[in-house]
Amino acid sequence: MREVAIAGVGLHKFGRYPHKTIEEIGQEAVTHALIDAGNLSWKRVQVVFCGTMHGGTAAGQRVVSHIGLTGIPITNVETACASGGSALKLAVQSVASGEYDVALALGIEKAGSGYLALNSYPQWQHLSGLGIPPVQLGLTATRYMIETGATPRHLAKVAVKNRKNASLNPNAIHQKPTTIERVLEARMVNYPFTVLMLASPCEGAAAVIITSQKDALRFNPQPVTVAAACSGVAQYGTDFCGMSSGFESDSTRLRNPEVTTVLSQQAYNLAGVGPGDLDVLELNDSTAASEIILLEELGICGKGEGIRMIDEGKTDIGGDIAVSTSGGLLGMGEPVGAVGVAQAIEIVYQLRGQACSRQVPGARAGMCQSAGAGGNCTVTILKR
Amino acid sequence: MVNSPGQDVTRQIPVGETLFKFPLSGNDTPHLIGSRCLDCGETVFPGKTRCPNCCGDKVEEVLIGPMGTLHSFTIIYQAGPVGYKGPLPYGVVKVAMHEGLRITGYCTENNPDKLVPGMEMELLIEKLFDDEKGNEIIGFKFKPVN
Questions:
Q1: Which of A69, A197, A204, B96 is the most buried (most CB within 10 A)?
Q2: Is A191 within 8 Å of B73 when comparing Cβ atoms?
Q3: Cα(A61)–Cα(A245) distance, rounded to whole angstroms?
């Protein structure tokens, strides 16, 4: 396997676009990525992986048909909320293996507001009131609060941080900061979450050009190395495996490591960096509680220490490790399939020193983690 | 009651055919139907023909319940777009059953202050809501034991 790098990035701002098609949204992100890769000609792109959950039949092909039909393979990737992360992993693998020299990882989505419509739940679970994503997230959060003493105020602090970061990100759906009081007093969706503690499903697209590390400088003066790209599914005997097919039982006897922990260990080993070397993190903050729990599963801090990191502002821009500088899913928004690719783009901006008012000074290494229904997860480490 | 054809009586429709025994007769206690692996002993619900833990294919049907303890809970204030048409808000709980597995299900209690981790929970098989045709949709629920 050879070393690979991100040589170009492009985004379509996250938001709501009733008058734009998913093809138009995707095309804009791809065009920006080509420009960023030194005005790369589409004719030089050799393979496409497109992450989307609701994009429908031949989604990536429909985007590419507006750019150029050069005959290259285009594969659509669906791993629920980790779809973009999986597309990125496959694009990285396709270049690392030596089969291709220039790959595009694309993520596109037009998700409506409100609950994400997942068809992974069997009918009996819909009828029993279980077929909505925040049910599992609420159960996990409540248990975490019971075990650690975390309070709704801790969750509100995460939401405030991510909305503040989003207000500094011109590509975020939410452009205004909020306050702890406003988060706590917002409409309850499901215990322990108010609407401001939950991700905002929306529309958007993200695209990155992957080349070999050796070629990357020819396209971009500041290529970013992909030090590790890992994917997997929650194994039996974990909390997250209960999401494998709608709701399934989980074991009281077995306690295997959560998939985020397993993949982050793989990624640390591959990249030769530890959690202490990371400057920036983009996490799958489906809820404000997810972010705190993920810090612990990724080994950024010990079990039960996540709330102290939030209390002490260690995850703020300027803290020990800046988390979700893009605003995360809570602030930048959640166009499902685009998220995993957009997370990598935020890390790229940070490592290039192009994150403007949300820049973490001197950032050298960053990680993104995406996860979703089916127990899916991806973890990626990027280095300067 | 389950009606005979032609009778103008409410029908009772279980949410699934293989999840629990319905209708219950006589002295039946409510149970869920799962599967237990004959190799590693893991019990899962809903039942499967292979074991998700050891991948073995020797499994037996097993009855689960009716008692367990509360592991976690959430309260749903905003219903999903499809399926459930019952009252709001409603509780959803994860219950550690005595058979060694945790099951997620509807809860009769919707006040978070009355749900205490570790408390005893009891399985019920009863109406979740009436559908638009007047049928009773029957599901399984958990109820705190007072």
A1: A204
A2: yes
A3: 28
- From A26, A16, A69, A32, select the one nearest A51 (Cα to Cα): A26
The interface predicted TM-score (ipTM) is: 0.94
Please give the average pLDDT of every successive group of 10 residues along chain A, which has 384 residues.
97 98 98 98 98 97 97 97 98 98 98 87 95 92 97 98 98 98 98 97 98 97 98 94 79 96 98 97 97 98 96 97 98 98 98 98 98 95 97
**Min Cα separation B97/chain A (Å):** 8
**DSSP H helices in B15-99:** none
Sign of CA dihedral A141, A145, A150, A152: positive
For residue A95, report the phi and psi dihedrals to the nearest 5 degrees. -90, -40
Domain coordinates of chain B in residue numbers?
65-144
Was domain B65-144 assigned CATH 2.40.50.840? yes
Chain B closest-CA separation from residue A115 CA (Å): 7
Q: From the CA of A5, how many Å to the nearest CA of chain B?
A: 37
Q: Which amino acid is at A48?
A: V
- Max alpha carbon distance in chain A (Å)? 57
Cα–Cα distances (Å) from A311 to A156, A157, B34, in that order, read: 11, 8, 43
Contact A5, A217 (CB under 8 A): no
Across the interface, whether the CB atoms of A128 and B105 are under 8 A apart is answered yes
Set of chain A residues whose Cβ sits within 8 Å of the Cβ of B83: 123, 125-129, 131
Chain A hits for B92, Cβ within 8 Å: 129-130, 135, 138-139
The predicted structure's pLDDT at residue B146:
77
Residue A98 burial by Cβ neighbours in a 10 Å radius (0-12, 13-18, 19+): exposed
As a whole number of angstroms, the distance between CA B139 and CA B84 comes to 11
The answer to whether B100 faces chain A, any CB pair under 8 Å, is yes
Phi first, then psi, for residue A369 (nearest 5°) are: -135, 125
pTM, to two decimals: 0.96
What are the CA-CA distances from residue A266 to residues A174, A259, B92 (Å)?
34, 11, 35
Question: What is the tally of helices (H) and strands (E) in chain A?
Answer: 13, 13
On chain B, the residues whose CB falls within 8 A of the CB of A252 are 96-97, 100-102
Among A127, A249, A253, the residue with its CB nearest the CB of B84 is A127
Per-residue pLDDT at B1 exceeds 50: no
Beta bridge partners of B12: B136
